[in-house]
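can u do me a favor
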């Protein structure tokens, strides 16, 4: 008889992961492959390492070189996935950028670029994939990468905060409309993780100590700490979960 662990299996599924060349995106793509999914990697950067790691799991892996923020990127990515695999079941919207400056000096370019990649591209990809699922009358899973700044204000990252706060909002809004179509829309909010974006913070002894003192778990998060959350939200185990933003933050928000 099937067990609860069977509901976490992704055998026969195809997952699309944006921003998959390194860091959290690469780790989540590998985790989904380890759970049984074939993977379409979407990024502008070098995907060779991620592809090789996924190939070692025995799953199929396709590379789609694309800038998610480009005009008409969403339909092009969808068609590339359908051409390669004939289907898509899971969309992980992980690609993102960040720009840092004081509010009084923040440029229109840094505002527009971040909102375009971190918010508009997420919506357009979600819209394209959901429309395909609805037309085919098949279920689907959308998982957005939110942030602690979906809940907090932050400093010197106003466009990033705006995008990630809005991302939590559109995750709820899309869930409300798409749940009746058996399409789950949820988000994961990573805490302070060991990624390229936090390299400067970790190198600053004062800031590093202040952050670690605030995290109940007492350490920075590793990319692999996202694995359980993304597999759960991609699998049948989360079929009755809609519109949540799940923090994976070592307890930061609970402090």
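np, heres the sequence
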């Amino acid at each position: 008889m099937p067990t609860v662990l069977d509901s976490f299996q992704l055998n026969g599924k195809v997952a699309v992961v944006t921003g998959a060349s390194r860091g959290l995106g690469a780790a989540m793509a590998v985790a989904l492959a380890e759970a049984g999914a074939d993977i379409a990697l979407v990024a502008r950067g070098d995907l060779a390492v991620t592809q090789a790691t996924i190939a070692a799991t025995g799953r199929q892996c396709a590379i789609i070189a694309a800038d998610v923020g480009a005009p008409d990127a969403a339909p092009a990515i969808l068609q590339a996935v359908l051409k390669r695999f004939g289907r898509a079941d899971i969309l992980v919207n992980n690609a993102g950028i960040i720009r840092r400056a004081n509010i009084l000096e923040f440029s229109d370019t840094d505002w527009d670029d971040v909102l375009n990649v971190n918010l508009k591209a997420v919506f357009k990809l979600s819209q394209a994939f959901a429309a395909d699922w609805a037309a085919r009358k098949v279920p689907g899973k959308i998982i957005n990468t939110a942030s602690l700044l979906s809940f907090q204000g932050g400093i010197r990252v106003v466009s990033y905060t705006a995008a990630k706060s809005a991302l939590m909002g559109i995750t709820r809004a899309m869930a409300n409309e798409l749940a009746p179509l058996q399409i789950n829309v949820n988000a994961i909010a990573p805490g302070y993780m060991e990624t390229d974006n936090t390299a400067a913070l970790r190198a600053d002894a004062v800031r590093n100590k202040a952050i670690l003192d605030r995290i109940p778990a007492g350490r920075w998060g590793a990319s692999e700490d996202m694995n359980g959350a993304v597999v759960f939200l991609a699998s049948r185990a989360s079929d009755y979960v809609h519109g949540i933003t799940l923090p994976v933050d070592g307890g930061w928000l609970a402090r």
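DSSP finds eight helices and seven strands in the chain. hope that helps!!
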